[in-house]
Design a protein that fits this description.
heterodimer, A: 5-stranded antiparallel β-sheet, 5-stranded mixed β-sheet, 16% strand, B: alpha/beta, 5-stranded parallel β-sheet, 4-stranded antiparallel β-sheet, elongated
Chain lengths: 458, 228
């Protein structure tokens, strides 16, 4: 196929043209046929009525009365196309505007169209007529001169053809105009897409402010591009952070191993080096595990293992796991739960999230303070809340704190994977719950708010 | 006669490392990289246990274990996986595996779990009411613990930990085994929570002057044993 024929707009115009031609042709053809038909039928009805009337005249006064009636009609009728002929049984004209009885016309044979001479014309004209034989043998012909009718037909036909041509011309014009419009808008989208593919991720499709379908489509596409740009930049941040978070401990790991490879090193120092190396490897693994967990949780894996989870029990169990570690740091974990708060969830993944929250509190709470793990129900939504008395998170940073690899306190770099709260946010999404970071005055108040009972998480 | 272990692992390094370490630990080892070969071996020759990688090129480990179980062979099986333990472990256990170890793992961890699955039947058969280790006695009905004449006050969870250790006395118990066995948690809490619990428990069990019963096994975990 040639490129021209492959163009969708050209094909559309052609299809448009064919459709317009067919539909217009049908309409005009029907018009032509009906108009001619109506005129013919009307004329014939009039002629039939005239014959009946003239037969009455004949019955009343015979041939003279009929001849008089004909003369009278010819004299008074405005219809110059009316044709009458009264002839004797031999075909000789008695009255009427035809020169003589046409030889080929047999009376009583219905409608016939003949070329005949009128008395008032010098050339023969087309006449459509009906003939009857009168009771005494005379012949009567009533008809209409159809020359004008043929001319009308020709005029009508010509007019209809012109109309067809004009409509087709218009169709081509509108098609061309439409295709230009569509092509222009498509070219804009195409241009933007190519620019984006070439790396200009901030390029957007221009709007014309008309609010039409194209503008609306462009608006939707732009919104999609915004979302993609956010995701890409998120991914870039994560990749960069990941590279950084892996390179740093890996670098230390290499240094420890290089140190351990030193032959002159006393055995004890070598052992320390190797243990440090293992510690660094553990950090790398923790980062990888947390990332893997987040991506698996985001993918909704494990959702088929959902069960009823008692929030109070969950709070108590996780608190108890951390209780000894807290005591070692001079902290206390208080548990305040309401009985009977049950949510649908993955017990392990929820416990992982709560342990992340408690672990986080443990890392930030000042010695001697109390961490509270509690459950509550607000607006029908069960919630699990972990409070600490640490420095908290400034309001402006609370959304960012849920992103991956965000460590709000730069001096604490190295402590933790920077993935703890991101993981909690993932777990919340998986359960249709909300993670809410609030002010505990002082400290952080982290709440996992689950959907109200009876509503199923996505 | 040494016990025979089937290792199905497609990574040559890991396979060689496992085979060598298991042989050094006194096992007889048969190793293959193919899941289909592994299936034939597992169903045919009487192994005492099998260690199967979760992801094999031809037949994945989970299907292998499932097929072995479908063939009516109850050989204990441990799955190795590089995937996250959180939800995969449940799938593995439902598929008929007895335990699940997440890669990368220390041999100490695998060896401790292998010991555990090899002894599993013996653990469950007896309706014990009392367990003893040296002069430490645990009454499973009254939920009380005594060391000689001294009554030891234990929190419920501490009692559970001690029971878990005592049922496996003389064998290494890893931190993840404790976390799974006592708390039923499959994730890594990252903080030294288990170590702190153990050191608390140790303070209660091993009073000053008494011979230590809870021993730390470097790089692996803990062991409860009388005299060494």
């Amino acid at each position: 196929m040639t490129p021209l024929l492959r163009s969708a707009t050209l094909r559309l115009i052609l299809a448009h043209l064919v459709l317009v031609a067919i539909s217009t042709g049908l309409v005009l053809g029907f018009l032509y046929w009906r108009v001619g038909g109506v005129i013919d039928t009307e004329q014939r009805a009039v002629v039939d009525a005239e014959i009946t009337g003239l037969l009455d005249d004949y019955a009343r006064g015979g041939v003279p009365a009929l001849a008089a009636a004909l003369q009278n009609r010819l004299a008074t009728l405005h219809d110059r196309d009316a044709i009458y002929l009264l002839a004797d049984s031999e075909g000789e004209r008695i009255a009427g505007n035809l020169a003589g009885w046409p030889a080929t016309l047999a009376p009583g044979s219905g409608w016939a169209t003949l070329s005949l001479y009128r008395t008032d014309r010098s050339r023969p004209t087309e006449i459509s007529a009906r003939a009857v034989r009168l009771p005494m043998g005379e012949l009567l012909l009533v008809g209409r001169d159809v020359a004008a009718r043929a001319a009308f037909d020709r005029t009508l036909g010509r007019a209809l053809l012109w109309a067809l041509a004009a409509i087709l011309g218009l169709a081509v014009a509108t098609g061309w105009f439409l295709s230009r419009l569509v092509r222009g808008r498509i070219a804009e989208v195409d241009g933007a897409a190519r620019a984006i593919m070439a790396g200009r991720l901030d390029r957007r499709i221009g709007l014309r402010g008309t609010g039409d379908e194209f503008d609306r489509l462009a608006g939707t596409l732009n919104a999609m591009l915004d979302r993609i740009e956010t995701l890409v930049s998120d991914l870039r941040t994560v990749t960069d952070s990941l590279a950084h978070d892996l390179r740093t401990p890996l670098g230390r790991l290499v240094r420890h191993l290089e140190g351990a490879a030193d032959e002159n090193l006393p055995a004890e120092a070598r052992q320390r080096r190797i243990e440090s190396a293992l510690g660094e490897a553990g950090d790398v693994l923790a980062t990888a595990t947390a990332l893997l967990d987040i991506s698996r949780i985001d993918a909704g894996l494990g959702a088929e293992q959902f069960m009823d989870v008692d929030l109070g029990r969950l709070a108590a169990d996780v608190s108890e796991l951390y209780e000894a570690a807290a005591e070692e740091r001079g902290l206390r974990i208080a548990v305040a739960t309401e009985p009977g708060l049950v949510v649908r969830g993955h017990d392990q993944i929820l416990a992982l999230a709560v342990s992340n929250l408690v672990d986080n509190a443990l890392k930030h709470a000042p010695p001697g303070s109390t961490i509270t793990v509690s459950t509550e129900i607000a607006d029908g939504r069960p919630a699990l809340v972990v409070d600490d008395r640490g420095p908290g998170i400034p309001e402006a940073d609370r959304t960012r704190a849920l992103d991956r690899f965000v460590r709000l306190d730069p001096s604490r770099s190295g402590a933790g994977t920077g993935l703890g709260l991101a993981l909690v946010a993932s777990v919340a999404r998986m359960h249709g719950a909300a993670i809410e970071l609030g002010d505990n005055r002082p400290g952080l108040r982290a709440a996992l708010r689950f959907p109200a009972e009876g509503t199923t998480p996505i | 006669m040494s016990r025979r272990i089937l290792v199905v692992e497609d990574d040559q390094d890991t396979q060689a490392y496992l085979a060598k370490a298991l042989r050094e630990a006194g096992y007889t080892v048969e190793a293959t990289a193919s899941g289909r070969d592994g299936l034939v071996h597992a169903v045919g020759a009487g192994f005492d246990a099998m260690i199967v990688d979760r992801m094999l090129p031809d037949l994945d480990g989970l299907s292998l274990v499932r097929s072995v179980r479908a063939a009516g062979v109850q050989t204990p099986a441990i799955l190795l996986t590089a995937l996250s333990a959180i939800d995969e472990r449940v799938n593995g256990l439902r598929g008929g595996a007895d335990d699940y170890v997440v890669k990368p793992f220390s041999f100490a961890e695998l060896s401790a779990r292998l010991e555990a699955v090899l002894r599993r039947p013996a653990e469950t058969k007896a309706e014990q009411t009392q367990i003893a280790c040296g002069d430490l006695e645990l009454d499973l009905i009254a939920r009380t613990a005594h060391r000689g004449e001294r009554k030891i006050e234990l929190l419920p969870r501490e009692f559970q930990m001690l029971e878990y250790l005592m049922r496996r006395q003389g064998r290494v118990v890893t931190r993840t085994m404790l976390l799974e066995g006592v708390w039923d948690y499959r994730f890594d809490p990252r903080t030294n929570v288990i170590d702190v619990h153990i050191s608390r428990l140790r303070r209660k069990i091993d009073a000053e002057g008494e011979p230590a019963l809870i021993h730390t096994v470097r790089g692996a975990g803990y062991k409860l044993a009388a005299a060494g």
